[in-house]
Specification:
Layout lengths: L7 H10 L1 H11 L1 E4 L5 E7 L5 E7 L9 E3 L5 E3 L1 E3 H11 L6 H6 L25 E4 L2 H10 L4 E4 L8 H4 L6 E5 L7 H15 L3 E4 L2 H5 L2 H5 L4 H7 L13
Parallel strand pairs: 7-8, 7-9, 9-10
Antiparallel strand pairs: 1-2, 2-3, 3-6, 4-5
Helix pairs in contact: 1-2, 5-10
Length: about 240
């Protein structure tokens, strides 16, 4: 929770919203800095009773997109990792013994980062505030200033939309915001899951906003709400100095 001058995502927030709003988002979403990659961000995941359960490490470029590298076999490597894996690798490189807590956390039977991102907000949020649920942590952060009526949380991936993960918000109205996709496959996957969750007592609906407004090209690229927010920003990214 420091060294924000060398955190690419925090610098993006400052350029978009100004220092005061960026500071509030950092506090609200517990955004940290990692030196696993220079400029990387940590999205800390705290559960509904306040326990820190994990952290996702992501390296963003100056435009707010995850850095990718094309490998020799033609596939793309995304610069994302988890704090526990980064710490394990750091200890191994330095020839140091893993601390007891990390050894226990790394045991196969221990659930890694098993909760929604942004749950710490529940302590301050009005009981009747509707939850908007996205895939990526970045999307939840960027959407908050634009749509403050919602309490924005993230599941981490399409496959993480499970009853266990959603249990802490079962008493709230939930609106799902899946990423756009070719032929609406992501939307349909979550729509099917939402139907099953409703049978289990969840008050959950779907937003078709991305399916409605995204172009075919944007859907093919898997646009999410964060991509639309950034794309609509005046002068983005041509007017920005990448060295700022």
């Amino acid at each position: 929770m420091r060294d924000y001058s060398c955190n690419n995502f925090v610098r993006l927030l400052e350029r978009l919203y100004g220092g005061a709003e960026a500071d509030e988002l950092i506090r609200r979403f517990e955004i940290g800095t990692s030196n696993y990659w220079q400029g990387a961000t940590i999205f800390w995941q705290r559960d509904e009773v306040g326990r820190m359960r994990g952290g996702q490490v992501v390296l963003f470029d100056e435009t707010g997109h995850t850095v990718k590298k094309r490998l020799a076999d033609g596939t793309k490597h995304r610069y994302t990792n988890w704090v526990h894996k980064a710490l394990e690798r750091a200890h191994q490189k330095q020839g140091r013994e893993l601390p007891k807590w990390l050894r226990e956390y790394l045991r196969p039977e221990v659930a890694k980062s098993p909760c929604l991102y942004g749950l710490g907000q529940l302590a301050e949020a009005p009981a009747g505030q509707t939850v908007a649920l996205t895939e990526a942590a970045k999307t939840a952060v960027l959407a908050t200033p634009h749509f403050p009526a919602f309490l924005w949380l993230a599941v981490g991936s399409l496959s993480n939309l499970t009853p266990a993960r959603l249990a802490p918000i079962k008493d709230r109205c939930i609106v799902l915001w899946p990423d756009a996709s070719t032929n609406g496959s992501a939307y349909q996957l979550w729509a099917d899951k939402a139907a099953e969750l409703r049978k289990q007592g969840f008050n959950i609906t779907m937003s078709d906003y991305l399916e409605t407004v995204c172009t075919a090209e944007q859907k093919a690229k898997g646009y999410d709400l964060a991509d639309l927010i950034l794309a609509d920003w005046p002068g983005y990214p041509a007017s920005w100095d990448a060295t700022v």
